[in-house]
Each structure stands twice: as structure tokens, then as C-alpha cells.
Amino acid sequence: MRRTNVILLAACVCPLPGCVFGDIRDQLVQVNANMERLDDRVVGLEETVIELNQERLAALDRLESIEVSLADIDDHLASLRRTISNIDSTIPFLEIADEEEPAPEPAEGDGS
């Protein structure tokens, strides 16, 4: 009987303005809404990070292919210099090549 009276008393008191339980419920609803908005923002940030990483990898692939192309061009130009030097040494009065050029510096990470 006492238990029923306590429940009836709590039911009568809580609908009144300023009830602690009502305030707690309202604040929990607000916190849940804020958490949902934050969760949406975190998901958006994760998607942005994934896209940026994919773009970064694509840029690195392009740079690697450019680096290979530049190395091929360097090799071709070195071969062309040797050919011109050979022509100059064979036909001295032609003088196609410029003055002695310093040897190209080895590229970083070449290990030479």
C-alpha cells in the first residue's frame, strides 16, 4: 500500500513545472539531438579524409610517372650530348657542342 502511495505521489508531482525528473528528461533529449548532429559531422569529416587520401595517392602516382619520364629524358639528353661530342671530336672544325659542360649532379637517392 505504501508503495502505491509513493508512485501516485511521484506521478502527481512530476507533471508540475520545475520537476527535476522532467528537467533531466528534457536535457537528455537535447543531449541526444546534439550527439546526432555531432555524429553526422564526424561521418562527414571521415568521408572528407578518405577523399583527400585518395586524391593524395592519385597525385603521388602522377608524380612518380612524371619522375620516370624525366629520368628517361635525362638519359636521352645525355646520349645526345655524347653523340654531339663524338661528332665534334670526329669533325673538329664543325664544333657543334658548347664548351665543356660539367657532369650532371646525381639525383637525390641515386646512391651514386
Average pLDDT: 81
Report how far the terminal alpha carbons are from each other.
95 Å
Please indicate the percent range of residues in DSSP E strands (runs of 2 or more).
under 5%
Query: What sequence of helices (H) and strands (E) makes up the elements?
Result: HH
How would you classify the helix and strand content by structural class?
Answer: mainly alpha
Return Rg in Å.
Answer: 39 Å
Largest beta-sheet characterization:
none
Low-confidence stretches: none
Assembly annotation: single chain
Helical fraction equals: over 70%
How many extended strands? Answer: 0
What is the overall shape? rod-shaped
- Tally of DSSP helical segments: 2
Describe the structure.
The protein has helices at residues 2-13, 20-90. The protein has 112 residues and is mostly helical. The chain is built from 2 helices and no strands.
Short descriptors:
112 residues; mainly alpha; rod-shaped
